[in-house]
Amino acid sequence: MRKRFWWLVFTLLLVVFTLGAKEQILNDHFQIIYDREDREAALEVASFSEEVYEEITTLLDHYPKGRIPVILIGQSATSNGYYSPLPHKIALYLNSPADRFLGSSAPWLKTLFTHELTHYIHLTSPVGIGGSLSNVFGPGALVVNSALMPGYWIEGITTYMEQARGAYSHFALNWRAPLVTNTMWSINQGVYGSSYPPTSRIYVTGYLMVNHLISTYGREAFLEVNRKFTSWPLFGLSYTFKRVLGKSAKELFGEALSGEDTLLYRDYEWNEIITPDGDYYLPYLTDRGLLGYGYDLDTGSFVYRLAGESITKEAILPISSLAFSGDGETLYFTHYWTKRGDESYRDIYRYHLLDKSLERITSGGRYNYLATNWDGSKLIATDKDHTLVEVGSLEELAFDAYQPIFSPDGKRIAFIEVKQGLSTVVVLYEGNKTILWEPALAEVYNLRFNGNSELLFSLDLDLYSYNLESGALLLIGEDPIGITGGVIFDNNLYYSTYTSKGFALRELPLLSETVAELPPPGELPLEREIISLEGKHYVDWPRFSFWLPSLVDELSPGATLLFVSPLNRHTVLLSGGYSLEQAFFSGEATYQLDLDFLSLSLDATFGRQQTLSLITSLPIYNGYSPKGLHSISTLLGVGGVFETKVMETTAQVGYAYTSYSAPKDYYGRWKASLTGAFYAYYYFATQEPLFFTRVSLGGQIPLGRTHQAIELKLDTAISHQNTAIITLLPDYLDIQRKVGLVKGLVTLRYRLPLGLFDYPIPFGGITALGLTIGAQTALYLYNTNFDWEEDVYLSLALNSDIAIGTTTIHPSIAMASSVREFKPALSFSLNLNFLLADQMLTSPL
C-alpha cells in the first residue's frame, strides 16, 4: 500500500514538472525562456545576445560555464528586470517604460538585457570568498560576495555598461541639482537607497564612481578592486580603494564630481520655487487653476491644485498617469495592480474631484499616458505598445506615441513620437498628420497647449514654444539645472525642474523670446537582422544551488542540499544525517510547488519515525482598487505519522483588506482581517478524533494623518471535546495562567512610526524606525464557566528598516513582561533574506 502511494506521488510530480506552455530558444550562451505569444521578443533578444555577451565578458574577464537562463515576462505592465542568484538567472519584463527613464535613444530590450547580464557576469565571477566557497558548496554560494557589497558597486557597473543612461540628460539631473545647491549626498549614503530623493541614488552614485574609475584608472583597476573587496569585504570598499588606488571612496567620489562645472551657478538668481518639498510634476491648465500630480513622503500620491498663491491637495490616490477635463472637475487616471504572479495591469479610472466619486473605466488594460478634451467627453490613451487609441472603441490613432494632449477646442491632438531612437512632435488635425520636424536625437518631454495654435515643450531641458500656424520655434525659458516642461497661466510661466528635494515648479514672468532652429535630423540606426530560430518545449527542472553540512543532533553529521528551478516553480530541499550514537539514518525531503494560482508543499521525513504532510494554498480572490486591496485565500493541509498512526487535517480560509498608504505610514493605515481554521486529529489506534476551531478577527485604525495607528485583535480557539486548550500565548512570552475549552486572546497595540531616516552605518543605512506598544490578556470558557487570565501582558517592540546594499532587512528587538509577575523577556529577530535579493534595473515600482 505504501509503495503504491509513493508511486502515485512520483507520477503526479512528473506530470507537474512537464506541463506548461513555456518554450525556449537555445544559442551558444543562452537559454531564452518565453511564452508562445512572446516569441517575437525572444527572437529579438537572441539576435543581440551573443554580441552583448562578448562585450561584457571581455570587460569583466569572466566567461560563465553553461547556458545562462533568460526569462521573458510579457503579461505585465511593469517595466523592469532582475538578476536572481538561486538559481543564477536573469528576467526581463518586455513592457517598455512610458517615462523613458533610460532616454529615447536606447532600445529597451537591449539596454535591459545589458543591465541584467552585467549583474549576472559580475556577481557570478568566481572571485573572493564566494568563489572559494562555490568550489566546495556549489554555485549558490557565490551569493556571499554581494551580501555586503555597496549598492553603488552592484549597480554602478551595470549602469556604466548600459551607456545610454549615463549619456541621458535627464539622468544627470539627479546629481546636478544637489551639486548646484551644495546639498550633495555623501558616498556613505550612496551605498544604499532611502525614501528621500533621488530614489535612484545607488544607480547615480554607481555610474559616477565606475565611469570615473574605468575612464581614469582603466578596466584592470575595477577588476582588481572587485577581486580584493570580495576576498575580504568586512573592512568595506573604501579600504579596498586605498589598497589598490591609494585613495578613499570619499576622495574618488569627489574626483568623479569635480568635472561638473556647477560653481558658476552658486550665485545664480534662481526663479522662485512655489511648491513644497516632494515631487510636484508639471500641471495642466483648467478653469479651476493649475491641476497636477504630486508625490511626497507624508501623503504618497496625490492631485494638487495651484490657484493664486495657494497649493492644496485635492485627492489622495495611487496614480500612475492622469488627465483633467477643462473645467477641472473630472480626473482620469491609471492605476497599477497585480492579478497574480507577474501578471499585472494598469487600468483607467474616472474620479470626480468635487463629489469624490470613483468609477472604473477599463478592466484588464495596460495603459500608459492619458488625454481628454476640454469637456471630458473624449478619452485617448497610449497602450503597452505605445499605440495611441481611443478608449472604448480602441480605434488606433497613431503608433510610437508618448504623452498625448488635446488642444483646448478639441480639434487637435499632439503627441511625442519616438521611433528607432529618434524623436519628434506630431499633430493630428482633421484627419491629417503633421510632423513638426524630422525625427532627431533631441529629447522631447511634456507637451502643453497655450491656446489652440501654440505648443510648449521641453527640448533637451530647455523650454520652447512652437507656433502651429507659422512654424516658428522660440526659446522661452532656460534654467541652470534644466526645464522638463512649462505651462502659461495668468501671464506667468510655470516650469518644472528638478531639485535636491524632488521635482518642483518655479515661476517667472513671461520674458522675451528667442528664435531657435529646429533640431537637426538624426540618422536612423541600421536595422538588425532577426533570424528565425527553432523554439522547443521548456521543462522547468530544478537545478542544484548549494549544499551545506548540518547536524541532525549533536552526534549526527549530515548535509542539506537545495535545488531550485529557473522559473522558481519547483524547490527541493533535501537533508539527512547519520546518528553515530544510535547508528541509524534520518532525513527530510521537502518539495515546494509555486504556480500563479496555487502553492503546494510536500514534506516527508524518514528514519526512526516516518511522516508525510501536504499543504496547499490557493488564492481565491484579489480585488485591487485605488482604495486598497481585498483578498481571500484558502489553505488545506493533511499529514500523518506512520508509526503512531496519527493523521492531522487542516482547512483554513482568510480575508484581508489593506488600504493605500504613504511612506511615512510605517505600519500602514486601514487594515482588516478575518481568518477561520478547522483542525482535525485522528488516532487510528484508538479511533478517537479530536476537533479544534480557531477564529481571528482584527483591524487597524489610523489616527488621522499622524501616521500613528491603533490595532485591535481577537484570537479565539475552541475545543470540540473535553480537552483543555493550551495555545494562543502572548507575544514574546510562554505563559498561560488558566485553561478552558474556549480561549480568547485579546490584543491592543499602539503603533508609532518614529520617522524615515537616511543615516549611514557600516555596509548600509538606517532608513526607518517604528515603535509598537502592546497589551494582551486572555479570556476562558470551561463548561459554561467564564474566567479571566487575571493578568495583563505588556510588550514594547522597536522595529527598523536597515538598507544593506540593494535590499532592506527588518531587524526588531522587543521586551515583554507579565504585570502580575515582572520578569521581562527579551526577543531579537533578524531577517536575512537580503542574501537572496534580486538585483533590479531600477528602483522597484
Task: Explain how this protein is built.
The protein is an alpha+beta fold and 845 residues long. The protein folds into 5 domains: 20-147, Zincin-like; 148-268, no CATH class; 272-515, 6 Propeller (Neuraminidase), CATH 2.120.10; 542-579 and 588-598, no CATH class; 609-840, Lipocalin (Beta Barrel), CATH 2.40.128. It is 17% helix and 44% strand. The chain contains 11 helices and 51 strands. The strands form 8 sheets. The protein has an 18-stranded antiparallel β-sheet that branches. A 7-stranded mixed β-sheet has the order 32-1-2-3-5-4-51, with helices on one face. Strands 7, 8, 9, 10 and 11 form a 5-stranded antiparallel β-sheet that branches. Strand 29 (492-499) and strand 30 (502-509) form a beta hairpin. Helix 6 (151-162) crosses helix 8 (201-217) and helix 9 (219-231) crosses helix 10. The radius of gyration is 30 Å and the shape is globular. The two termini are 52 Å apart.
Low-confidence stretches: 833-837
Q: Proportion of β residues?
A: 35-45%
Amino- and carboxy-terminal Cα gap: 52 Å
Shape: globular
What is the name of the CATH architecture of the largest domain? 6 Propeller
Domain tally: 5
CATH level 4 superfamily of the largest domain: TolB, C-terminal domain
Number of strands: 51
Rounded average pLDDT: 90
Helical residue percent band: 10-25%
User: What is the highest CATH level, the class of the largest domain?
Assistant: Mainly Beta
**Mind telling me the C-alpha Rg?**
30 Å
The biggest sheet, with number of strands, parallel, antiparallel or mixed sense and barrel status, is: 18 strands, antiparallel
Structural class: alpha+beta
Q: What is the CATH topology descriptor of the largest domain?
A: Neuraminidase
* Number of helical stretches of at least 4 residues: 11
